[in-house]
């Protein structure tokens, strides 16, 4: 199995002593086939953006082809994982490897997963510095997503000319906590750079896990108001927010803000607003009660609870939302 990483953290040190730090740097691209020791940068090989892109396309082209639309749920994914607040680089890599191993590896896995790691401070007291870094990191993530957008548009044009599908993978994103804020701002950049196209899906499934963003992000509904929420919904086929009122970490986040709205990852969508039809939310509280000893706190436990992993997999595969609710016993 190959692991993939894109980062805008500064690269510190030389040779075997290199590491990814806490400050913002240039975009760098990394891959590794090693299965252990990934929290040491020496386990990774840095490659050019072109080499990374070509290797990624090659890996995706090796996925099985499903020409019948009825088989679309079986299509493999290229998924970007964006970590959240209070994550050192080693924290981010450990979480990424766990997600990649549990959900994307093996014959029945979802495909391949790429880590985007931004310079979160990894300090419990660093909410405001992390938020500033998140806003700045949106520019670098937008560069990555713009390249992806342009490639997908070319592939769509080729498919229309030939009548044959040219992509064997869906593109999805899993964003956790403040990683959703990074993505929110990045997608606005992409949408603006590309003259705000309407309903040109770049992302098939966006999974917003414990999102540290305002819960009225999608208040524009079906209208075009050119807000961040509008950018997200127009560049994404379906947006799913997983939330829980048990998330005390996001309670701290809301308290630090002292203004604005409740957190999407703690309260779900604002029930006083009507979101676009391609946006919905799921309360995961029933899975997060009475977590066993050794499990991370509620804010991060989503990724380690087996039943939530199964829920995420169905969402990413594009299973109909009513089927998902019935299959998982959700209201």
Q: Quick recap of the structure?
A:
The chain is 39% helix and 21% strand.
List the defining traits of the structure above:
331 residues, alpha/beta, Rossmann fold, nine-stranded mixed β-sheet, globular
Verbal overview:
- The protein is an alpha/beta fold.
- It has a single domain (3-327), classed as Rossmann fold (3-Layer(aba) Sandwich), CATH 3.40.50.
- The chain is 39% helix and 21% strand.
- It has eleven helices and nine strands.
- Strands 3-2-1-5-4-6-7-8-9 form a nine-stranded mixed β-sheet, with helices on both faces.
- The two termini are 37 Å apart.
Task: Return the average pLDDT rounded to an integer.
Answer: 89
CATH class wording: Alpha Beta
Domains (count)? 1
In percent, how helical is the residue content? Answer: 25-40%
Q: What pattern of helices and strands is seen along the backbone?
A: EEEHEHEHEHEHEHHEHHHH
CATH hierarchy: architecture:
3-Layer(aba) Sandwich
- Oligomeric form of this entry? single chain
Radius of gyration: 19 Å
Tally of helical segments: 11
Overall strand count? 9
CATH superfamily: Alpha/Beta hydrolase fold, catalytic domain
List the helices and strands and how they pair.
Elements (H helix, E strand, L loop, with lengths): L2 E10 L6 E14 L12 E3 L1 H13 L14 E7 L6 H16 L6 E7 L9 H36 L6 E8 L2 H15 L9 E7 L18 H8 E8 L4 H10 L6 H4 L11 E5 L1 H4 L9 H4 L4 H12 L3 H7 L4
Parallel strand pairs: 1-5, 4-5, 4-6, 6-7, 7-8, 8-9
Antiparallel strand pairs: 1-2, 2-3
Helix pairs in contact: 3-4, 4-5
């Amino acid at each position: 199995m190959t692991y993939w990483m894109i980062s805008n953290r500064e690269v510190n040190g030389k040779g075997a002593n290199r590491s990814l730090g806490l400050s913002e740097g240039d975009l760098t691209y990394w891959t590794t086939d090693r299965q252990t020791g990934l929290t040491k940068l020496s386990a990774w090989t840095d490659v050019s953006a072109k080499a990374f892109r070509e290797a990624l396309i090659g890996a995706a082209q090796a996925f099985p082809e499903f020409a019948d639309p009825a088989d679309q749920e079986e299509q493999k994914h290229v998924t970007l994982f964006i970590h959240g607040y209070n994550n050192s680089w080693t924290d981010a890599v450990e979480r990424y490897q766990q997600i990649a191993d549990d959900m994307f590896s093996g014959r029945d896995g979802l495909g391949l997963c790429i880590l985007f790691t931004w310079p979160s401070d990894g300090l419990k007291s660093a909410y405001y510095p992390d938020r500033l870094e998140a806003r700045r990191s949106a520019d670098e993530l937008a560069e990555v997503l713009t390249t992806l957008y342009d490639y997908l548009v070319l592939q769509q044009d080729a498919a229309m000319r030939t009548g044959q599908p040219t992509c064997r993978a869906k593109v999805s994103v899993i964003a956790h906590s403040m990683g959703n804020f990074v993505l929110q701002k990045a997608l606005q950049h992409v949408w603006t750079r590309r003259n705000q196209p309407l309903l040109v899906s770049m992302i098939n499934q966006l999974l917003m896990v414990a999102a540290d963003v305002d819960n009225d992000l999608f208040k524009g509904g079906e209208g075009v108001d050119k807000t961040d929420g509008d950018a997200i919904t127009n560049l994404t086929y379906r947006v799913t927010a997983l939330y829980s009122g048990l998330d005390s970490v996001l309670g701290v986040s809301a308290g630090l803000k002292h203004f604005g709205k409740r957190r999407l990852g703690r309260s779900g969508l604002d029930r006083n607003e009507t979101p676009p039809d391609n946006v919905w939310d799921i309360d995961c509280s029933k899975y997060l009660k009475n977590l066993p000893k050794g499990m991370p706190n509620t804010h991060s436990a989503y990724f380690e609870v087996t039943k939530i992993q199964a829920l995420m997999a169905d969402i990413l595969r594009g299973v109909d939302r009513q089927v998902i609710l019935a299959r998982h016993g959700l209201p």
